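Task: complex structure prediction.
Instruction: return C-alpha coordinates for all chains below.
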Amino acid sequence: MDRQQEIDLARAVLGGDTAAFDQFVELYRTKIFQYSYLMCGQREDAEEVSQDTLLKVFENLNQLREPERMKAWVFRIAKNACLMKRRRSIFAPKYELSLEDLMPPGEWHDGERRLEIADWKNLPDAEYLAREMSGALRKAIAELPEIYRSVVLLRDLEEMTTEEAAEILDLSIDAVKTRLHRGRLAIRKKLDDYLRTAERV
Amino acid sequence: MESQGHDALACSEVFELLSDYLDGSLAPEDCERVRRHIHDCAPCVEFLESLRQSVSLCREYGSIERPAPLSPDVRERLMELYRRATHQE
Ligand SMILES: [Zn+2]
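Output:
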Protein backbone atom coordinates (compact mmCIF):
# COMPACT_ATOMS: atom_id res chain seq x y z
CA MET A 1 0.00 0.00 0.00
CA ASP A 2 1.53 3.33 -0.97
CA ARG A 3 1.39 6.59 0.87
CA GLN A 4 -1.68 7.93 -0.94
CA GLN A 5 -3.61 4.70 -0.36
CA GLU A 6 -2.75 4.91 3.35
CA ILE A 7 -4.13 8.44 3.48
CA ASP A 8 -7.27 7.43 1.57
CA LEU A 9 -7.81 4.56 3.99
CA ALA A 10 -7.33 6.87 6.97
CA ARG A 11 -9.83 9.32 5.48
CA ALA A 12 -12.40 6.53 5.02
CA VAL A 13 -11.92 5.36 8.61
CA LEU A 14 -12.20 8.88 10.03
CA GLY A 15 -15.34 9.32 7.96
CA GLY A 16 -16.99 6.37 9.71
CA ASP A 17 -16.70 3.90 6.83
CA THR A 18 -17.07 0.53 8.57
CA ALA A 19 -16.01 -1.28 5.39
CA ALA A 20 -12.59 0.36 5.73
CA PHE A 21 -12.36 -0.62 9.39
CA ASP A 22 -11.08 -4.19 8.92
CA GLN A 23 -8.55 -3.18 6.32
CA PHE A 24 -7.28 -0.44 8.60
CA VAL A 25 -7.04 -2.75 11.61
CA GLU A 26 -5.13 -5.39 9.63
CA LEU A 27 -2.75 -2.87 8.10
CA TYR A 28 -1.82 -1.15 11.35
CA ARG A 29 -1.83 -4.31 13.43
CA THR A 30 0.85 -5.68 11.13
CA LYS A 31 2.83 -2.44 10.98
CA ILE A 32 2.82 -1.90 14.72
CA PHE A 33 3.58 -5.53 15.40
CA GLN A 34 6.62 -5.34 13.21
CA TYR A 35 7.83 -2.08 14.68
CA SER A 36 7.36 -3.21 18.25
CA TYR A 37 8.77 -6.68 17.64
CA LEU A 38 11.98 -5.06 16.45
CA MET A 39 11.88 -2.50 19.27
CA CYS A 40 10.99 -4.82 22.17
CA GLY A 41 12.52 -8.04 20.90
CA GLN A 42 9.70 -10.29 22.13
CA ARG A 43 6.86 -11.58 20.01
CA GLU A 44 4.38 -11.57 22.94
CA ASP A 45 5.27 -7.98 23.84
CA ALA A 46 4.79 -6.96 20.23
CA GLU A 47 1.38 -8.63 20.07
CA GLU A 48 0.36 -6.76 23.21
CA VAL A 49 1.71 -3.45 21.99
CA SER A 50 -0.16 -3.71 18.71
CA GLN A 51 -3.40 -4.58 20.48
CA ASP A 52 -3.02 -1.83 23.13
CA THR A 53 -2.14 0.69 20.46
CA LEU A 54 -5.24 -0.06 18.41
CA LEU A 55 -7.45 0.18 21.48
CA LYS A 56 -5.99 3.60 22.22
CA VAL A 57 -6.28 4.66 18.59
CA PHE A 58 -10.01 3.92 18.47
CA GLU A 59 -10.63 5.31 21.95
CA ASN A 60 -9.13 8.61 20.86
CA LEU A 61 -10.04 8.62 17.20
CA ASN A 62 -12.11 11.78 17.49
CA GLN A 63 -8.97 13.72 18.50
CA LEU A 64 -7.59 13.28 15.02
CA ARG A 65 -8.89 15.43 12.17
CA GLU A 66 -6.40 15.18 9.32
CA PRO A 67 -6.02 11.78 7.63
CA GLU A 68 -2.51 12.80 6.51
CA ARG A 69 -1.44 12.72 10.15
CA MET A 70 -2.91 9.30 10.94
CA LYS A 71 0.20 7.22 10.46
CA ALA A 72 2.47 9.43 12.58
CA TRP A 73 -0.25 9.67 15.24
CA VAL A 74 -0.67 5.88 15.43
CA PHE A 75 3.07 5.32 15.55
CA ARG A 76 3.49 7.86 18.33
CA ILE A 77 1.02 5.88 20.41
CA ALA A 78 2.85 2.67 19.49
CA LYS A 79 6.21 4.15 20.41
CA ASN A 80 4.93 5.07 23.86
CA ALA A 81 3.40 1.62 24.35
CA CYS A 82 6.78 0.12 23.44
CA LEU A 83 8.57 2.31 25.96
CA MET A 84 6.22 1.08 28.69
CA LYS A 85 7.01 -2.51 27.76
CA ARG A 86 10.69 -1.96 27.54
CA ARG A 87 10.86 -0.66 31.07
CA ARG A 88 10.11 -4.20 32.06
CA SER A 89 12.48 -5.89 29.65
CA ILE A 90 16.18 -5.95 29.03
CA PHE A 91 17.55 -2.84 27.43
CA ALA A 92 19.90 -3.06 24.50
CA PRO A 93 23.23 -1.51 25.40
CA LYS A 94 23.36 2.21 24.75
CA TYR A 95 26.33 3.23 22.70
CA GLU A 96 27.01 5.60 19.88
CA LEU A 97 28.07 4.55 16.43
CA SER A 98 31.01 6.44 15.02
CA LEU A 99 31.35 7.13 11.31
CA GLU A 100 34.97 6.04 11.36
CA ASP A 101 34.07 2.56 12.51
CA LEU A 102 31.47 2.29 9.80
CA MET A 103 33.80 3.09 6.93
CA PRO A 104 34.87 -0.11 5.22
CA PRO A 105 38.54 -1.00 4.95
CA GLY A 106 40.25 -0.65 1.60
CA GLU A 107 41.77 2.01 -0.57
CA TRP A 108 39.54 5.05 -0.95
CA HIS A 109 41.75 7.33 -2.92
CA ASP A 110 42.95 5.18 -5.74
CA GLY A 111 40.23 4.62 -8.30
CA GLU A 112 41.94 1.46 -9.50
CA ARG A 113 41.58 -0.51 -6.31
CA ARG A 114 38.43 -1.95 -4.85
CA LEU A 115 37.13 -1.55 -1.36
CA GLU A 116 37.16 -4.63 0.77
CA ILE A 117 33.42 -5.09 0.58
CA ALA A 118 31.02 -7.60 -0.92
CA ASP A 119 29.94 -7.48 -4.55
CA TRP A 120 26.72 -5.47 -4.18
CA LYS A 121 26.35 -4.79 -7.87
CA ASN A 122 25.21 -8.22 -8.94
CA LEU A 123 22.67 -9.14 -6.31
CA PRO A 124 19.24 -10.58 -7.07
CA ASP A 125 16.35 -8.13 -6.75
CA ALA A 126 15.64 -6.65 -3.34
CA GLU A 127 12.32 -8.37 -2.78
CA TYR A 128 13.78 -11.83 -3.34
CA LEU A 129 16.91 -11.05 -1.40
CA ALA A 130 15.06 -9.56 1.57
CA ARG A 131 13.24 -12.87 1.91
CA GLU A 132 16.43 -14.88 1.42
CA MET A 133 18.34 -12.76 3.91
CA SER A 134 15.51 -12.03 6.31
CA GLY A 135 17.35 -13.65 9.23
CA ALA A 136 20.51 -11.62 8.66
CA LEU A 137 18.48 -8.49 8.07
CA ARG A 138 16.42 -8.95 11.21
CA LYS A 139 19.58 -9.52 13.23
CA ALA A 140 21.27 -6.46 11.73
CA ILE A 141 18.30 -4.28 12.65
CA ALA A 142 17.72 -5.83 16.08
CA GLU A 143 21.36 -5.36 17.05
CA LEU A 144 21.35 -1.65 16.34
CA PRO A 145 21.41 0.50 19.46
CA GLU A 146 17.86 1.62 20.18
CA ILE A 147 18.33 5.29 19.27
CA TYR A 148 19.31 4.31 15.72
CA ARG A 149 16.91 1.40 15.42
CA SER A 150 13.78 3.45 16.04
CA VAL A 151 14.76 5.93 13.33
CA VAL A 152 15.63 3.23 10.77
CA LEU A 153 12.32 1.46 11.41
CA LEU A 154 10.27 4.58 10.81
CA ARG A 155 12.28 6.00 7.91
CA ASP A 156 13.27 2.90 5.96
CA LEU A 157 10.89 0.10 6.91
CA GLU A 158 7.83 2.32 7.21
CA GLU A 159 9.10 4.88 4.71
CA MET A 160 7.90 7.82 6.75
CA THR A 161 9.31 11.30 6.21
CA THR A 162 12.09 12.81 8.29
CA GLU A 163 9.56 15.26 9.74
CA GLU A 164 7.19 12.46 10.79
CA ALA A 165 9.99 10.49 12.42
CA ALA A 166 11.10 13.62 14.25
CA GLU A 167 7.58 14.21 15.54
CA ILE A 168 7.06 10.61 16.64
CA LEU A 169 10.39 10.32 18.42
CA ASP A 170 10.59 13.89 19.79
CA LEU A 171 13.82 14.54 17.94
CA SER A 172 15.14 17.39 15.83
CA ILE A 173 15.29 16.96 12.05
CA ASP A 174 19.08 16.91 12.22
CA ALA A 175 19.10 14.22 14.90
CA VAL A 176 16.84 12.04 12.77
CA LYS A 177 19.13 12.47 9.77
CA THR A 178 22.30 11.78 11.73
CA ARG A 179 20.88 8.70 13.40
CA LEU A 180 19.41 7.40 10.18
CA HIS A 181 22.73 7.65 8.41
CA ARG A 182 24.64 5.89 11.16
CA GLY A 183 21.95 3.24 11.50
CA ARG A 184 21.96 2.58 7.78
CA LEU A 185 25.74 2.36 7.71
CA ALA A 186 25.74 -0.13 10.57
CA ILE A 187 23.15 -2.32 8.84
CA ARG A 188 25.06 -2.10 5.59
CA LYS A 189 28.20 -3.23 7.37
CA LYS A 190 26.49 -6.25 8.93
CA LEU A 191 24.89 -7.27 5.66
CA ASP A 192 28.22 -6.82 3.96
CA ASP A 193 29.83 -9.23 6.41
CA TYR A 194 26.99 -11.65 5.79
CA LEU A 195 27.31 -11.42 1.99
CA ARG A 196 31.05 -11.86 2.10
CA THR A 197 30.72 -14.95 4.22
CA ALA A 198 28.09 -16.24 1.80
CA GLU A 199 30.43 -15.53 -1.14
CA ARG A 200 33.18 -17.57 0.43
CA VAL A 201 30.93 -20.56 1.12
CA MET B 1 40.85 15.69 -6.41
CA GLU B 2 43.18 18.71 -6.76
CA SER B 3 41.85 19.75 -10.14
CA GLN B 4 38.35 20.20 -8.77
CA GLY B 5 39.43 23.28 -6.81
CA HIS B 6 39.09 24.29 -3.19
CA ASP B 7 35.48 23.17 -2.77
CA ALA B 8 36.20 19.54 -3.72
CA LEU B 9 35.08 17.03 -1.09
CA ALA B 10 37.20 14.27 0.39
CA CYS B 11 35.89 10.70 0.48
CA SER B 12 35.28 10.96 4.21
CA GLU B 13 33.16 14.08 3.72
CA VAL B 14 31.17 12.39 0.99
CA PHE B 15 30.77 9.36 3.23
CA GLU B 16 29.02 11.55 5.79
CA LEU B 17 26.53 12.88 3.25
CA LEU B 18 25.54 9.68 1.47
CA SER B 19 22.16 9.11 3.17
CA ASP B 20 21.08 12.66 2.44
CA TYR B 21 22.36 12.21 -1.09
CA LEU B 22 20.34 9.01 -1.55
CA ASP B 23 17.25 10.65 -0.05
CA GLY B 24 17.60 13.71 -2.25
CA SER B 25 17.65 15.93 0.82
CA LEU B 26 20.92 17.77 0.22
CA ALA B 27 20.98 21.43 -0.71
CA PRO B 28 21.49 21.70 -4.51
CA GLU B 29 25.07 22.94 -4.22
CA ASP B 30 26.07 20.13 -1.82
CA CYS B 31 24.36 17.61 -4.03
CA GLU B 32 26.39 18.87 -6.96
CA ARG B 33 29.64 18.64 -4.99
CA VAL B 34 28.88 15.05 -4.00
CA ARG B 35 27.92 14.20 -7.55
CA ARG B 36 31.16 15.69 -8.86
CA HIS B 37 33.26 13.76 -6.38
CA ILE B 38 31.49 10.48 -7.07
CA HIS B 39 31.91 10.93 -10.79
CA ASP B 40 35.68 10.47 -10.40
CA CYS B 41 35.84 8.14 -7.44
CA ALA B 42 35.32 4.42 -7.96
CA PRO B 43 35.42 3.46 -4.26
CA CYS B 44 32.70 5.99 -3.43
CA VAL B 45 30.56 4.74 -6.31
CA GLU B 46 30.95 1.19 -5.08
CA PHE B 47 30.19 2.12 -1.52
CA LEU B 48 27.17 4.21 -2.46
CA GLU B 49 25.76 1.26 -4.41
CA SER B 50 26.15 -1.02 -1.39
CA LEU B 51 24.37 1.49 0.84
CA ARG B 52 21.57 1.99 -1.69
CA GLN B 53 21.04 -1.79 -1.92
CA SER B 54 21.09 -2.16 1.83
CA VAL B 55 18.42 0.53 2.23
CA SER B 56 16.22 -1.18 -0.41
CA LEU B 57 16.51 -4.42 1.52
CA CYS B 58 15.21 -2.68 4.64
CA ARG B 59 12.28 -1.31 2.64
CA GLU B 60 11.43 -4.79 1.40
CA TYR B 61 11.75 -6.28 4.84
CA GLY B 62 8.66 -4.31 5.81
CA SER B 63 6.25 -7.08 4.86
CA ILE B 64 7.83 -10.20 6.29
CA GLU B 65 6.79 -10.42 9.96
CA ARG B 66 3.13 -11.16 10.69
CA PRO B 67 1.30 -11.03 14.01
CA ALA B 68 -1.00 -13.85 15.16
CA PRO B 69 -4.55 -13.55 13.78
CA LEU B 70 -6.80 -11.02 15.49
CA SER B 71 -9.11 -12.63 18.02
CA PRO B 72 -12.85 -12.06 17.44
CA ASP B 73 -13.18 -10.60 20.97
CA VAL B 74 -10.58 -7.95 20.36
CA ARG B 75 -12.06 -7.12 16.97
CA GLU B 76 -15.47 -6.73 18.63
CA ARG B 77 -14.02 -4.39 21.26
CA LEU B 78 -12.24 -2.31 18.62
CA MET B 79 -15.41 -2.09 16.53
CA GLU B 80 -17.37 -0.94 19.55
CA LEU B 81 -14.85 1.84 20.21
CA TYR B 82 -14.87 2.73 16.55
CA ARG B 83 -18.65 3.05 16.41
CA ARG B 84 -18.60 5.20 19.52
CA ALA B 85 -15.86 7.47 18.15
CA THR B 86 -17.69 7.95 14.87
CA HIS B 87 -21.13 8.24 16.53
CA GLN B 88 -22.56 5.10 14.99
CA GLU B 89 -23.94 3.39 18.08
ZN1 LIG C 1 35.56 9.12 -2.87
